[in-house]
Amino acid sequence: MLYPAVALVRASLSHYSVTGLYRGSVGASNYARLLEQEALPAVVANTVVWVVVVVLVTVVVSLGLAQLLNEAFPGRRLVRWALIVPWAASVIMTAKLFAWIYDYYFGILNHVLVSLRMVPAPVDWLGNDATVMGAMIAVGVFVSLPFTTYVVLAGLSAIPGEVYEAAWVDGASAWRTYWSVTVPLLRPALLVAVVLNVIYVFNSFPIVWTLNDRNPGFSHDTMITYMYKIAFRSSLRDVGLAAALGVVNVLVILMAVLLYLRTVSWREAEA
Amino acid sequence: MSVARGSSIRRTALSGVGLAVALVVLAPYIVMICTALKPERELRITPPRLTPIEWRPANVLDVLGDPSFQGWLYASLIVALTSTAIVVLAATPAAYYTARHRFPGRSAFLLLVLVTQMFSPTALVVGLYREFFELGLVDTYAALILTNAAFNLAFAIWILRAFFTAIPREIEEAAAVDGCGRLRTLVQVVLPLSLPAIVTAVIFAFIAAWNEYIVALTLMADPARKPLTVGITSYVTAYVQHWSHLFAASVIAIVPVVVLFALIERHLVGGLTAGSVK
Questions:
Q1: Domain containing A75: what range?
Q2: What total number of domains does chain A contain?
Q3: From the list B124, B150, B250, which residue is nearest A93 (CB)?
Q4: Interface touch B11/A232, C-beta < 8 Å
Q5: Within 13 Å of residue B44, how many CA atoms lie on the same side as its CB?
Q6: How far is A130 from chain B (nearest CA, A)?
Q7: Residue of B88, B110, B114 lying closest to B201 (CA atoms)
């Protein structure tokens, strides 16, 4: 576990030939060059949009789904099983599947939307600069939902029934009960769900990698796929530069982890 | 009476909403299955159809008989099974020890385990590549096995530890009174009791390794040694587009893990959030 981290830091301070041979230490110049990369501002902006929107939408939808699954009704097991599928399935396979569904000519999505007259003409979801990010975000939400819903569900089931009875006795409406009783009590579960999702979504690779693979350049990449392309795919093939970005990525995650740990200990202090 | 009727209407409505949710979630996978069963010529028709005109289950047999697919399946099985075995063999004693003994650095150790759980190999992939490049292990199963084992260890330790902690000490003391040694107590008393947790750890580690993509994509250049996640993408490239084979292979890869996953679903959230939710 520690070795790759050490190797990463060392690589970030070194220069390598395109075939991967070590060409000596260059100090911090990889970091300086990283800041000079033209694509960097767009990549950082993409990353922020990707993480914030995916996590936000995922949490909001999960709140609803968890509320539904917390009720007893015939067929609840079926819904729970359905929800497992995107979680268990390999994300790369799901991403390929969506690449097919989004296909301009033969994808089922355009056919359905045009038939329902929701769009006037087929949309090139993955080839159009205006839609590709949205298309990727939709898939990101889709694969993040199951885990988040289950975390919220665990939080819901930990709320004792008495508090609802008390709210009912006090004459609170269902809506009022939800906002004044359920949501505050769900706070710990929500914090955990948000921080873990930020980490997972930031680290997510296959979705952006697959759905964006036809587009040249880096205009729709996140920091993770950008790093990967610098190291292994683009004409740059620059391991040192990619490693410098890798170190930055690790620091970003580390900050999220620290936030998570503070959240957890905040919980323990309160309990 | 009116209460009962109200609640039955409510339950029917909830069932309706639940069914709609299940359909939305499963819809993409229904597309996957239907596409997997289409003959090649039906992939390029407009307007596209969801269901095949002619059902062609032989696609699945084509894929199973494809030597490349067999190679990928073999690689996936080797990597997932071996790394899972390493995880369980290493995590069980580690979890037991930290659950039963206080030692200097114990909380630091547990914290480290928790932090490593947050890191996916993705963030470290460039470092991993350098590591295995220097060790001369690029393009070997060993590199994938080691990586998967290392990154899944943390979760396994956490979930097993939580379980061991919950087993009352008295049971072990009783075993000691009956003349059981330390090792025998662990093997004959503690392990059978913690079987559900071990099963959960096993399945989780297996699925995580089975679905791993980025490290395999980076480290495995030899087409014959790629695992399924990377291998099947070669069914659809800029030059060949065998979507039905891609999805037939995906279905074969996904069905077993969904079944396994359904078995451990209840234990999983607790493990992934390391006890911080309840």
A1: 37-237
A2: 1
A3: B250
A4: no
A5: 4
A6: 23
A7: B88
- B67-100 helix and B106-118 helix, angle to the nearest 10 degrees: 150
Nearest-angstrom CA–CA distance, B58 and B38: 9
The per-residue pLDDT of chain A, averaged, comes to: 85
Look-up of token digits 């990928």 = B72
Q: How many CB pairs lie under 8 A apart between chains A and B?
A: 227
Asked whether residue A25 is assigned to any structural domain, the reply reads: no
Q: Between residues 1 and 60 of chain A, which touch chain B (CB distance below 8 Å)?
A: 1, 3-11, 20
- What is the rounded CA–CA span in Å between residue A6 and residue B209? 23
Half-sphere exposure of A182 (CA within 13 A, CB side): 22
A56: left (phi over 0), alpha (psi -120 to 50) or beta: alpha
pLDDT lower than 70: segments of chain B: 1-6, 117, 268-278
* A243 vs B126, B229, B253: nearest CB: B126
Which pLDDT tens digit goes with each residue over A221-258?
999 999 999 888 777 778 888 888 988 998 888 888 78
Largest Cα–Cα separation, chain A = 75
Q: What is the ipTM of this complex?
A: 0.85
**Which residue type does A214 have?**
R
Q: How many CB atoms lie within 10 A of CB A186?
A: 21
**What pLDDT is recorded for position A222?**
93
To the nearest whole Å, the CA of B238 is away from the closest chain A CA by 9
| Separation of alpha carbons A167 and B180, rounded Å | 54
Give the whole-angstrom CA distance, residue B124 versus residue A231: 12
Residue A151 lies in a domain: yes
Domains of chain B: residue spans and CATH: 66-272 (1.10.3720.10)
Residue A214 domain-assigned (yes or no): yes
Is the per-residue pLDDT at A95 higher than 90? yes
pLDDT tens digit sequence for A110-159: 999 998 988 888 889 998 888 999 999 999 999 999 989 988 988 888 88
For residue A249, tell me if it sits in a domain: no
Residue found by looking up tokens 């329902």 in the block? A116
